[in-house]
Amino acid sequence: MSGDVVSEVPKVPRDKENDYTNDMAAKRRSFMQQVSGAELSHVGSGSVDPATLPGNIENYMGVAQVPIGLAGPLRIEGEYAKGDFYIPLATTEGTLVASYNRGMRLLSEMGGVKTTIAERYMQRAPVFHCEDARGARNLGNWIEARFDAIKAQAETTTSVGKLVKIQQWCVGRMLYLRFNYTTGDAAGQNMSGKATQAACEWIVSTYDLPTRYTLSGAIDTDKKHSHMNMLHSRGARVIAEAVIPKELIEQRMGTTAAALFRARLVSSAGGMLAGTANNGMHSANGLTALFIATGQDAANIAESHAAITYADLLDNGDIYWSITIPSLIVATYGGGTGLATQRECLEMLGCYGADKVQKFIEICAATVLAGEISLASAVVAGDWVDAHDKLGRNRP
Questions:
Q1: First-to-last CA distance in the chain?
Q2: Which of 19, 155, 297, 344 is catalytic?
Q3: How far is CA 101 from CA 40, 174, 190, in A?
Q4: Which of 39, 164, 350, 393 is deepest in the core (most CB within 10 A)?
Q5: Among 77, 129, 344, 388, which one carries the catalytic annotation?
Q6: Catalytic residue check, 355
Q7: Any catalytic annotation for residue 129?
Q8: In order of start, what are the domains of the chain with their CATH numbers?
Q9: What is the pTM of this model?
Q10: Count of CB atoms within 10 A of residue 178's CB?
Q11: Model confidence pLDDT, tens digit, residues 35-47
Q12: What would the mean pLDDT of 356-385 be, rounded to a whole number?
């Protein structure tokens, strides 16, 4: 009502001079305890040094401690990842580590997972607003003819990122562009955004007709799944594959290669019916656990979980099994990868720092394949529910 005094809502404590200290974290926990009545002793019991956090978080008050399980060994026969690896998986879902561990045992015993990176780009996708459709088409032709100059302008903003190609789509009087960059060991979203802005400013200042742009026209689909990414890739397009002997499936998984192949046909049909972004089992499970353990941006699972499973029952009764991940977005440098526990997990894999991202990409893909085969076998063999009852319940 008019004239009523509205009490001021208390604000989160901050220090404009230095907000990244243990003292400020304690003040925020104390503030929250007063506001909510919650006891925050565990939230405040981490080993993180607040001084290492600028650029990673704001209003730091403590840690979310997620237990890490160890799966493996997983034998990988990749171009960058070679040998046996033990995989740290941060999760609170019982049976997840055990299931991935079982798949890793099977794949290691048959000789390992073959991994291949087909391509890797990060995108920013501006849209230019033109007078009409012909103007959009003409601008597109002008941009295509001046790719080298645009590339030079974009790369003034980064010592790592390289502009490889610009894709185009005309829609009405709009010209949608998709700038594709290689980004070294970083995931590269911010890098590609800064580079693309510089390129667009040059286009606006150089083109002989007035034009304007929006830095993202939404077809980069940042942290959202899209069919665009399935076709054109975002992050890495990586394939993990294996030919698994029928005898080993029977010994280790309690089912047969023929039954697993039939189940893949059922899942593909069901996935088509549902309109899912993944005709496999649960790639998001292993990737999310690995992302959290190694300091990846967990929101990138929205894109990275998409996958295409392909299986083939061979004439000798063995089964070929592959999974293609078209949008795996990971880094071994920058972001959260340099924080203490996350760095340790990357170091366990031999994947921290420069020139290691391809190795980590292959490890991620191989881990996913292990989880796919294990869960598919559990469903077909009929022990899926029993495993969750045994390992996945912490209730009386």
A1: 52
A2: 297
A3: 34, 50, 35
A4: 350
A5: 388
A6: no
A7: no
A8: 15-65 (no CATH), 68-119+234-391 (3.90.770.10), 126-214 (3.30.70.420)
A9: 0.93
A10: 22
A11: 999 999 999 999 9
A12: 92
